[in-house]
Amino acid sequence: MQRKINKVGIFWVAFILLYTIAPQAWGAEPIYIALSGPLTGTYAEYGQNFKKAISLGVEWINAAGGVNGRPIEIVVGDSKGDPKESAALAQKFTSDKRIVAEIGDFTSTCCLAAQPIYDRAGMVQLSPTSSHPKFAPGSPWSFGIIGTQAGEGPFMARFATETLGKKKLGVLYINNDWGIVAKDMFVQGAEQTGAEIVAVEHYFEAERDFTGVLTKLRGLKPELLYICSMYNDAALISKQRAKLGWTDVDVMGPGSLYSPKLLEIGGDAVNGLYTSAVFFPKDPRPEVQKFVQGFEAKYQGTPNMFAGVAYDAINLLAETIRKAGTDRKAIRDALAQTKDFPGVTGKITFTANGDVVKDYRKLVIKDGAFTLYE
Amino acid sequence: MLVPQLINGLTQGSIYALIAIGFVIIFGTMNLVTFAHGEVYMAGAFAGYFALTLWQLPWYFALAMGMAAGWTLGFMMEKVAFRPLRTAGHMPPLLVTIGLSIILKDLVVLCFGAENRPVPSVYDQTVQVAGTQISVLQILLLGLAGFLILGLRLLIYGTKIGRAMRATAQDHEAAYAMGVNVNRVFSISFALASCLGGAAGVMVGMYYNAVYATMGEAAGLKGFAACIFGGLTSIPGAILGGLIIGIVENLTVQYIASGYRDIVAFLVMVLVLVLRPQGLLGRRIRVV
Fold it and tell me: Which long-range contacts (CB under 8 A, 24 or more apart) does A52-56 make?
């Protein structure tokens, strides 16, 4: 009896050992990269896009032999879009010795809250989406690859005034770090072209009633309304604008509005809305098409710009680690030297601050779809 | 832009009024303040949302669904949470309502997520009235609120259960001695209040095109404020309080800035209460 039990025991030990070793069939310790993003909450769609695109990128990198013979593994943390959470995650990631670099967070506010912690610990904080002009220059360890509002604001202002010929502009912005900067950059750019800013109004996060502020803006008669917000707010604003019957105005917003959800939530009310994008899935470049097709095959949906920049972030990091090894400092130094990295959202070359300068595409919503504005 | 803002304010205020009336009914009959009323409103909004999107029903069915959901939830809450605590004093039921509010909110987050759910537009048309463009939906919502309030009045002053409610509100022990089934009155009062809350939820969902798990927090607070503002036990007071808060908010957006709407609305309320502690239409409470 005793003997029999021992045999069964040995079998189980062998079984368990086999199971724990099997995923590491590589024989090499993985390289751990952290991801901080809003997987739940208001910005969940963006966070999920990060996760999907990065999983796809990691899958391909590992299938092609990993980085210097070692697989990449992602340690995922949910920041819920809350700066308190992103700072707590930063503490957790930087104190984990296995983690070599971090990707995230999504909102500029979350990135800025976590920045001092990555800075003190000396770990790369590569945000796919932070477009706040103060983010990347704020620390030598912070990098942003989506371009900043300092580039996009004036570009959109020229789109409004020179391309569309609008002379009286109104601005509605969300009152947070990002919204204030997006508004300031647009207003500055517009004033340089000689356009008149007739109204600047704000709203607070989590506001759902825009009828009052829209009624006020309407009374000031702008020819174009620039909305600095995320897609979900912009969709509500557009619907409530339609409900109030305010039709003699064009609506425009930065690339944050470029999401299929805007079309889904906004319906007919977002037709004619102008926006911009650094990533367009119909781009014929081979790296873009490879990514789009792989993403569609795996997730049954077209990737958006946010998936695109997240995919670029993981590939850029993998490429950097391939060159520099896994030392946190060496990764930073190599990353700062990046030049003409062929991303799906355009070529990536960091400025001295750790920012990139992007090419924007002008888009307009026609018959419920984003189309290139010509 | 004064007239459109007044209409925005009236629409919003009429929704506050419906919530406030719920507080008045519950406080009036049961002498109980509930902090779960905002969540009942949220539950009603979700019921209406599912009716509009999943089952593609017309808006009046969605409204009925929201009211039914509110009624059921209110009825159950009274049975399960308040009846056993009838003799436990003031604090325990109050704490139970706080607990219920957290449970309901988190349940919805767990089941349906924390994000905004888009509600399809019901009426996107506008009409021209005396040179001002007015949204058809706003007229509809104002009409609905008026209709519900009228119905409530008929119920309270024209039916047997209404009379029983008024008797219980005056003195529930005396009412009990006169043969009023006080337990039934409590159940129905709570359910009725919750039903109006559910209706308000559906209406606000249609108005702003969004429902979400935490929508009850601010709305519950505003409704409670409107109820105190109006005098705690006065239904006309609650209506007046709701409308004033709604209008003040929208005028603040027009003449100051969007961010100040709540500050000014509550400031006006505090001022009125300092000058008239019993509220706009409340009676001065005699302290023996």
Answer: A52/A295, A52/A298, A52/A299, A52/A303, A52/A307, A53/A295, A53/A303, A53/A306, A53/A307, A53/A308, A53/A310, A53/A311, A53/A314, A54/A103, A54/A310, A54/A311, A54/A313, A54/A314, A56/A291, A56/A294, A56/A295, A56/A298, A56/A299, A56/A311
Residue A153 predicted with pLDDT over 50: yes
Q: Tell me, what's the ipTM?
A: 0.83
The end-to-end CA distance of chain A, in Å, is: 83
Q: Mention every residue, 6+ apart, whose C-beta is less than 8 A from residue B158.
A: none
The answer, for A58 touching chain B at a CB cutoff of 8 Å, is no
H or E stretch covering A37: strand A31-37
Residue-wise DSSP of A304-339: -HHHHHHHHHHHHHHHHHHHH-S-HHHHHHHHHT--
Q: Looking at chain A, list the stretches that DSSP marks H as alpha helix, in order from N- to C-terminal side.
A: 2-21, 44-63, 83-95, 108-121, 149-158, 177-192, 211-219, 231-243, 260-266, 286-299, 305-324, 328-336
Residue of A nearest to B252 (CA): A212
Please determine, looking at this structure, whether the domain spanning A8-147+284-348 carries the CATH number 3.30.420.10: no
Residue of B nearest to A46 (CA): B115
According to CATH, the superfamily of the domain at A150-277 is Response regulator (3.40.50.2300)
Residues of A in contact with B215 (CB under 8 A): 208
CB contact under 8 Å between B114 and A209, yes or no, is no
Amino acid at A35: L
pLDDT tens, residue by residue, B120-176: 888 888 888 877 888 899 999 999 999 999 999 999 999 999 999 999 988 888 998
Tokens representing A20?
A: 């724990």
Chain A residues 121-140 within an 8 A CB cutoff of chain B:
none
Residue spans of the domains in chain A: they are 8-147+284-348, 150-277
**Residue B44 pLDDT:** 96
Which of A244, A246, A247, A262 to probe by mutation at the B interface, max B CB count within 10 Å? A244
Contacts of B133 in chain A (CB under 8 A): 244-245
